[in-house]
From TrEMBL:
Protein's name in the database: Germin-like protein
Source species: Nicotiana sylvestris (Wood tobacco)
Statement: the UniProt record of this protein carries the keyword Cell inner membrane: no
Annotated binding of oxalate, by residue: N108, H113, E118
Gene name in the database record: LOC104242177
MF term (GO), any: manganese ion binding
Length: 228
C-alpha cells in the first residue's frame, strides 16, 4: 500500500512538473503591469514592471470585444487579440484572450501558437475545427482530430500543434479563445513557409513539398493575408 502511494505521489509530481514547464513562468509578486513605453524596452522574457504605486484599474481593463471584427478579406476571418501588448495587466499572469469573427465559409487558416494551449468556445454559428499531432511513430501519419462545433461547444488545441477553424455555415460565426500565455504568438503555416522575408530558397521548398519549382515560385509570389 505504501509503495502504491509512493508511486502515485511521484506520478502526480511528475505531471505537475511537466505542466509547470508548459506555460509562462509563475509570477513572483501580486502584479507586474507592463510598462507601455518602447524606450523602456529591455531584453527580458516578458516586459518590465510598472511602479506599483502608479498602477491603476485601467491597466487591467480593455473594452471593445463586443464589436465584430472586419472579415472582408481573402480568408473571411479576423482575430481580435487581447494580450500583454494591449492589456498591460496581463504581464506575468500567463493568460490571454481572442475574439474570432468568421464570415460565411470564412477560415482561420492552419496555424500554431508556439507558447500557448488554446481553448475555443463558440458563441454563434457552426465551425469545423481540428488539430494535427506531431512526431508520428514508425509507419504512422500525423493524426488529425476534427469536430463540428455549435454555440456553447468548447474545443481545445494543445500547445504548439497546427490547428484551424472553418465556418461551415451560411451565417456569420463568432468564437472566443483563451490561451495559456500572456503572449502566445502565432505562426500561420502558409504565410511563414511561402511568404517569409526573405523568401526560403525554392530548392528547399521544391524538395520538401515534392513539387515543381514553378509551383513554389507561384506560391511565393502570392499575397498571403494575415488575419491576426
Amino acid at each position: 500500500m505504501a509503495l502504491r502511494t509512493l508511486v502515485l505521489t511521484i506520478a502526480i509530481m511528475a505531471l505537475l512538473s511537466s505542466m509547470s514547464h508548459a506555460f509562462d513562468p509563475s509570477p513572483l509578486q501580486d502584479i507586474c503591469v507592463a510598462v507601455d513605453d518602447s524606450m523602456a524596452a529591455v531584453f527580458v522574457n516578458g516586459k518590465i514592471c510598472k511602479d506599483p504605486k502608479q498602477v491603476m484599474a485601467n491597466d487591467f481593463f480593455k473594452s471593445g470585444l463586443n464589436i465584430p471584427g472586419n472579415t472582408s478579406n481573402q480568408l473571411g476571418s479576423v482575430v481580435t487579440a487581447v494580450n500583454v501588448g494591449n492589456l498591460p495587466g496581463l504581464n506575468t499572469l500567463g493568460i490571454s484572450l481572442a475574439r474570432i469573427d468568421y464570415a460565411p465559409y470564412g477560415l482561420n487558416p492552419p496555424h500554431t501558437h508556439p507558447r500557448g494551449t488554446e481553448i475555443l468556445a463558440v458563441l454563434e454559428g457552426t465551425l469545423y475545427v481540428g488539430f494535427v499531432l506531431s512526431n508520428p511513430g514508425p509507419n504512422m501519419k500525423n493524426k488529425l482530430f476534427t469536430k463540428i462545433l455549435n454555440p456553447g461547444d468548447v474545443f481545445v488545441f494543445p500547445i504548439g500543434l497546427i490547428h484551424f477553424q472553418f465556418n461551415v455555415g451560411k451565417t456569420n460565426a463568432v468564437a472566443f479563445a483563451g490561451l495559456s500565455s500572456q503572449n502566445p504568438g502565432v505562426i500561420t503555416i502558409a504565410n511563414a513557409v511561402f511568404g517569409s522575408d526573405p523568401p526560403i530558397n525554392p530548392d528547399v521548398l521544391t524538395k520538401a513539398f515534392q513539387v515543381d519549382k514553378k509551383v513554389v515560385d507561384y506560391l511565393q509570389s502570392q499575397f498571403w493575408w494575415d488575419n491576426n
